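To: structure desk
From: M.T.
Subject: fold request, one chain
Message: Could you run this one when you get a chance? Sequence is below, nothing fancy, just the single chain.
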Amino acid sequence: MMEGHKRIDSEIKTSDRKHAGNAAAIVSVSIASLFWGTTFSTVRYGFSEMDLSPFSFLFLRFLIALLSLFPLMFIKQIRAEVFRTLRMPVILLLGVLNGLSYGFQYAGQVSTTAGIATIMMNTYVLFTPVFQRLLLKKTINRKEIAAISAGFTGVIIITLGDLLAIRAGSISIYGALLVLAGGLFAGLYVAFSENVMNIKMNGKLLNPVSVYFSSTVYSVVVVFFIGLFFQDLPRFTNISYQTFALISYLGIVCTSGAFILYLIAVRKLGAVDSAVFTLLQIIISIVIALMLLKEIPDVFMMIGAPIVLFAVFLVR
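Reply: Done. Structure tokens follow.
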């Protein structure tokens, strides 16, 4: 009888720890979504108001993201793990995929709206389960399929006004297709990130900081060579304090901070559920536009937003 009680107590404690871990992961991905929810409008502002070219902008963002984590290299454990993970082919793959994803996004966002960029980039929510199934042989359950379908339907409705503008010819389809390519590479990144975050080194799971730092080294290299090819690399003497502040915000908060929080979440929630949760960034961007820019949501946003929230509810 005593052994039975002990087993039940052990199972309850294990269940409690699992729920606590999932709750912490949900908080992490929600905060990451909060940060990412500010990026599309911020990037668009950089292009329109500060006359920043796409690859100079992106290179500086990634470089500042990388430099912001350098103080952590003084921690012996992280430094040792970074040097080891830099030699892992899958970390190289993550870095290249992330660099290409953002490269296509920035190239396309110059000639399209923030709304179109949002929907095209968030196609990674659709691509992620496809790549997990085809490349990693993972199964997707019905609840996840329902959440993905609902979430992306909500995204389409929210941005329906911009989609109609493409059909009318007032917005370039070329820019939209470039951002769509960014969404495809983002889907690959998300699909492989779950596997990476479950790799053990010396009996311990990889540290999200080490994973992000190491992969971003390769992302910076990818973006540098893209900029070199298009003759679009920054001249540091021409950067104003305002531009530096904007890029620092994107690099430190919306890149390093958001991605580390995301990697923490993907270990617990998995790639598909984490991807659905990140759709919250669309809701957050609408709220920020309302509060700071006094932009009143249109009827499409008011219909689509609850559908996105329902999708997040399905995978909570």
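Reply (cont.): The two ends are 36 Å apart (CA to CA). Let me know if you need anything else for the meeting.
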